[in-house]
């Protein structure tokens, strides 16, 4: 029986460190710390003892502590065997996936740092490295204006990594020496190409620095061993064998070498009369066991003397020249701003593609082909971050934006224009988050940015990567978080610019056959089960956070990826529909892994799911069987408002329908993001609520005043109830806060590529009128949440919903919200219940004149005192005036003790 002792600390490395997944990030080593040595006893039969099994079981339970694959089902009291089994199998699949990824990465989270290796990167060895994944290609080269678009000059060469078994290609682009310059004579000389561009350009040569370091580091006589490295072994050889020692292996066989201890004692005897400083610094210890190797121990004086020495690192670092010295000596292999593409030779012939990891792409314009741009600006031109991200607020007031249509002029707007004109407006309007869509490079402008072609590139339509960084930095300076509408549910099907048929094959990033194509949108569907695809998508999420300081993501059309039918199926709510054969398990594992990695790497990140099917556990923790999102979008609300306004007369609106749609499932209401309308209701074919309400009004007609009053009243009431009855997040699309009168229509063939509707009418706010009134109300509505913490409070107590009187009332903390949707009936004294007796003050009234109302409530009616009368199941009530189509917000300002 043998006993095996495990070390108390060990470092785990991958089985093949040369794999491309090995990230060069700071997260490069994982340590497992054990508090004590564990001994595993094995018998001759090789079976573990019962106490071992017990310890192993305990260890596994510690690893799984707090993890329950069906935890959210238990919490909600849901009993469904098939779905519970599905969740357990999904949890096991996730563990298996992590183990597989761990074999190819030092740590699981290293899979999110692929951008540090892939694409173009400057190397300190006076070169630029390019790596691309294209398993179907036979030959790879980088072509561009820097090499005359030659497919043979800069290619993957044998002996320079070239091509590995996983389909990764490696191309080295050597920087060129200028005329008259010579290569560096020392291998450790480096050039800091990006940062500190003038550091080290003092003109001191490497030889002078080395001589200075040598003189300072070595004591007199010590450096002779550095100059003649064979002196020490030669003297040792002569000491052991004498001046006429053996010269060949055959002669050596006849000599009997004394053991190490004997040689040490003989040497010590020779130096017994020498001063202590000349004695050998080592001693020999022997534990008395035959299998022990003699342990060498040094004296304390010698050890402290050795530790006191410090290597001349400052001198070595000073040999690192700066950017000026680099430019004096070298010509960059691929200069900043160069156009380039990747060239492949495939079984179907040669082809050129925009690199998948390109960070800046110039889209097709005027018939010119799309190409990538090498973005490596000089340090004095690169953006330096000035502001840090604001703290995540308890309630999100999100302002959804599209940079291209954010200007007043009929043209594509820019990042710089958005920064200067729109960001101050968002700050004034009282929002605390901007959510951008259409920022990632996409094929067609009229698709609003949802057919993404280059996932790592900021769209060149609006400016450069530095321009976008300045926009984000300025937003942070205004106290605004920046969210990105990310599209990982599908990709553009364009072959010349996107990822489709990237390497000439059909199964590189996407599924083959029908599953690889969206049933209705003509886009390509990712193969989420492939490790390289996971590497690409997870790194993409981390890239936007690390490179551009993005604070959150809204995952677009999650239902398109979770189901093989892309979410286009009827759902009855039966849990069987969420675990049947149409569920894409690989895509689901990707969403779980994405949320886990994002929240691990960036704990303050916010993720939002846009899922029309409301997958169970969408916002539950991944450790409890959920998908891990922070919020989900209630897509039923904007559809309801559009349907009511366009199809149902005002007097037939059903209050209970409004409330049930707004609240949704009560157990998930706190995770719900609500909006009355977003860009979907305004873009290409749709109509914004303002266009429905005001679009057909002829201001010269006799009933224009009444129509404007109706439209203005409903616009305010819809926004007020939508933003205050739900969870902790509310969203508004750019311009809708002031009732933008026209829809959005991007230039396309059907409108002769007109920009007339691809902008925002900010000029409408300059004059007094309905748009200014609506903006004043929306601004005060946002201020109400900021001052009274409406959204961050607990869920409202909805105690009064009357379909006959068309009145809705609910409490939220000390606030009372009352809505009268009736088109004709006003109520002088309408009773609504309140729990707390006291005085209630009107703090927001949609009928005020500054909001475009009639100001029908008198000033003396703004303060109301409760009546001791049980109404709506509450102990007290208020009798409040309710003009038609108005809403009021009351605040408890004084408590009366009865």
Automatic annotation (TrEMBL):
Catalytic reaction(s) noted: Transfers a segment of a (1->4)-alpha-D-glucan chain to a primary hydroxy group in a similar glucan chain
Keywords: Amyloplast, Plastid, Transferase
Region (Disordered): 44-66
Superkingdom of origin: Eukaryota
EC number: 2.4.1.18
Family annotation (InterPro entries): A-amylase/branching_C, Branching_enzy, GH, GH13_cat_dom, Glyco_hydro_13_N, Glyco_hydro_b, Ig-like_fold, Ig_E-set
Family membership noted in the UniProt record: Belongs to the glycosyl hydrolase 13 family. GlgB subfamily.
Protein name: 1,4-alpha-glucan branching enzyme
GO aspect biological process, one term: starch biosynthetic process
Source organism: Tripterygium wilfordii
Lineage: Eukaryota, Viridiplantae, Streptophyta, Embryophyta, Tracheophyta
Compartment(s): Plastid, Amyloplast
